[in-house]
Amino acid sequence: LEGGLLETLSESRQRVKHRGPRPEELGAYVSTLRAANRALALDPKSQEAAELVSRLMLEPPIETPPEVEAALTKSDTDLLVRHARLGSWGLIGYLMFFPIMWLGGIREPWLVFGGTAVTLCILATLLIVMKRPSSVAIFASFLAQVVLVAFYARGLSPLLVAPGVALITTLMFASHVRTGPVWLLWAGCAAGVLVPLVLEGLGLVSATTSIEGATLMVHLPAESIDYTVAVAGLGGYVAVILLIATVITRIQAHERRDIQRTIQLQAWQLGQLMPK
After folding, report:
1. Vertex 16, ends 13 and 22: CA angle to 5°?
2. What is the pLDDT of residues 81-136, one digit of tens each?
3. Stretch 146-163: mean pLDDT
4. Nearest Cα to 197, choosing from 157, 143, 155, 156?
5. Cα 190 from chain centre
6. How many CA atoms lie within 13 A of 147 on its CB side?
7. Distance of alpha carbon 65 from the chain centroid
8. What is the pLDDT of residue 189?
């Protein structure tokens, strides 16, 4: 029995390797695995049957079963919804930043009210993602966040607030395979910061950043800035950015550990079934 099963498995895997995965190949693999399990059930002390089952378990089929693909898709969607919920709470910190800017002396309507409107649009797209996850909603949320990065870069200098917001946006979206290719995520967030900087360097728009001697100066859209409010606002911004990054990273660490725990438990259970 063992020789026949091993030969069947070997032939099946060679056909898959040379011709590409086909549905019938997966069926042959499943049949081989079930036959090996029956052999072990008939003779639990059979070392040959145990080795065969172990080999089959350690050599998964080249073609991923549809049930596994569906489970992976559901897992990705659940994770995306959880992160969208977390992102919606983080946006509250972003919303609080605009009234603080107003109190500090920055009262450009396009920046304060426009930035608030964009942030609310991001929140709306995240709510849609939480209820009905789709590629369109995810991409719309990403584009809105790139626009917000550009608002910060143009209104508060590309070197002040925008890089941190771009980093958090990249971190949140790059942690999911359904949010688009890596190059697109990088290009979008980088453009939100660098395009305003390049336009300033070319003299196409008014400069928000200048260097005199060894002094780097940031020119904000205000006649005067309240020092206390400005320091409190920037301090709060740093705290919010660090909090979001810390929470996201820790959540991902727990998720990886849960996956590893499940794998190790399954390996342990399989080991208990095998005769010593």
Report:
1. 125
2. 888 888 888 888 888 889 998 998 888 899 999 999 999 999 999 999 888 888 88
3. 92
4. 157
5. 17
6. 17
7. 24
8. 94
**Strand pairing category for 209-212 and 215-218:** antiparallel
160 C-beta neighbours (distance < 10 Å), count: 17
Residue type, 27: G
Q: What value, to the nearest 5°, has the Cα angle with vertex 111 and ends 211 and 238? A: 65
Q: Is 188 exposed, middle or buried (0-12, 13-18, 19+ CB in 10 A)?
A: buried
pTM: 0.73
What is the Cβ-side half-sphere exposure of residue 76, based on CA atoms within 13 angstroms? 17
Q: How far is CA 86 from CA 6, 195, 257, in A?
A: 49, 29, 20
Maximum C-alpha span of the chain: 87
CA atoms within 13 A on the CB side of 126: 22
**Would you list the DSSP string of 167-182?**
HHHHHHHHT-GGG--H
Distance CA 150, CA 206 (A): 15
> Position of tokens 């590309």?
158
Give the pLDDT mean for 215-243: 88
Strand partners, 209: 218
* Segment 188-221, tens digit of pLDDT: 999 999 999 999 989 899 888 888 888 888 888 8
Token look-up 């725990």 returns 261
Q: 131 Cβ partners below 8 Å, 6+ apart?
A: none
Q: Which amino acid is at 8?
A: T
In 3-state terms, what secondary structure has residue 62?
coil
Cα 240 → chain centroid: 19
pLDDT digit string, tens, across residues 167-176: 999 988 888 7
Q: Cα–Cα distance between 45 and 59 in angstroms, integer?
A: 22
Domain boundaries, the chain: 2-63, 76-242
